[in-house]
Amino acid sequence: MWRAGCPERTVASDGPLLARECASIRMSVHPTPNPTTEDADAVHAESQAPEHGAVARLKRLDEELRDRLRHPDERPHEYPLKEPHAPPPPVAPPREPGFFDRFKGRQGVKSLIAIAVALALGWFPLQRLLATTSAEATVNARLINLRAPIDGNVSLVAPTLAVGTEVEPNEALLYIANTRADRGRLDDLRRTINGLTTDMHAAEKRVAQLKGIEANLVAQRNAFQEGRILQLEARANELKVQITSAEATHEDAHQAMERSKKLRATGSQTIATLLHAERDFKTSGLAIQAAKIRLEGNKIELDAAKKGLFVGDSYNDLPRSAQRLDEVRQQLLDGSARVEENKGRIAYLENELAAEKQQLAVHSHADIKATVRGRIWEVLTANGEEVRVGQSLLRVLDCAGAVVTATVSESVYNKLFIGQPTHFRLRGESTEYAGTVVGLTGLAAAGSNLAIEQTALTREPYHVTIAVPGLAERRECNVGRTGQVTFDTSTAASPETVKTADALN
């Protein structure tokens, strides 16, 4: 007969320890109505364990008892026989259930799931609480101040010109016209150019006339030269004939002298006749020499005439036509040089005139165009208003160059460095934008023309500027929106970065 999983005969024959254990199990499963003091303590200890633990132990004991019934003569070493009078071994107190034993079963699984969900939900706020973040952060951007380059009246060009209007680069916004622009320099240049042009045309005409006179004088000089050469050649021929005639006369005088000498020797002729014959002979010889000298002089004049030089007693080495030709050529050179000079001056003044026209165009009218993509932040003029040079007309918000200005505590500020990576998240959005620390101004605000001054951020005294390229990619202009900056403090600043930060601060 089985009683709560233990055979009755086995309880008495298999040792006191097994008997007590079976009794403990029976009491935990079916507690007795009147337990003894020892049994009450066992029941109280066992009642602390879960029911499924007792059932498992009961099954294990049941299997051991079945094995003993099959082999009654064998005694397992786990339960050695004790001496009859030996005191029973002390009973170990029941083991308290472990932490993980409490989560066995369906209720335990549910508890584990609840704990995991609680940890997951609490980790993200805890992580953000432990992260290095800014106290407050605002999207900011530079303000571009468009000023009047000239004096004049303003006219609106853009269809709409109001605060918040989106503008694109090179978009015309305003037009300024100045009807009182100074034209004095431009008029002076034009008058000077006209005078030089008139003088140049007169010089060109004079040069053309001188070229005609030069041609006539050249023809006259050439004709005179040719005539002079022919004249000298004819005189040379004449001198040659005279020399021939003188030589013939000299020969006759020589023969007459010889006859006179013979007649004088015979006494047939007087001494006077002989002397006269000798004189004629000497005279004819001198006449030959004189003719040859004149022929040599004529040859010299002929050679000079062929070279354009005229040698004579009663006139200069150059004829009047040649002298006049030299004068005309000198005037021609002066006139040509004057024409070239006027051309050079006119070309220079025309360049000056073109530059002056551009200056006049710049000073007479101007187009005010947007330089960046952004939105109009402030309108400081109106249609038809008279403005002066340097007067502010518009302030345009540079949305493409958006940055984030933030304030941090002193402890956070001392952990930052130029070039440190950051993440920025707009309030109400989950998207994070990567950024970089570009300015650490500390207690002083950044000295730049930002739309929102850093002095307006007062939650913490230390100011930081962060460049966030991702904001420029957004089409809308987020200037003024708030968010939070998370600083990446896992990276360390390099020595070059520290030097740069010290220089900027």
TrEMBL record:
Coiled-coil ranges per UniProt: 186-249
Compartments in which it is found: Cell envelope
Residue span of region Disordered: 28-93
One GO CC term on file: cell envelope
Basic and acidic residues bias: start-end ranges: 59-85
Keyword set, alphabetical order: Coiled coil
PANTHER family the record matches: MEMBRANE FUSION SUBUNIT OF EMRAB-TOLC MULTIDRUG EFFLUX PUMP, MULTIDRUG EXPORT PROTEIN EMRA-RELATED
Name used for this protein in its record: HlyD family efflux transporter periplasmic adaptor subunit
